[in-house]
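FIELD: query
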Amino acid sequence: MPNRSRRDFLASTLRGVAGSLVAGALPCLGAGAASGPAAARYNVLFFAVDDLRPQTRCYGCEKMITPHIDALAARGTLFLRAY
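FIELD: result
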């Protein structure tokens, strides 16, 4: 194994992950454009946060007033054990 610095390792890893994400997203973005109506495609909104405490009412925290996120959670899929 070649002697690489931590910076080189992280840079190459991040380039690979970013490339995989872009390559995975491009077929999803362009595949449905010519194949059918917009209603046939999935509409995905993914919230990624680094705070591991879900402090919203839809997760059971009655102190918070979060009507818009609660309505979105009621319409979509709420993951209660995403760990």
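FIELD: remark
The mean pLDDT is 73.
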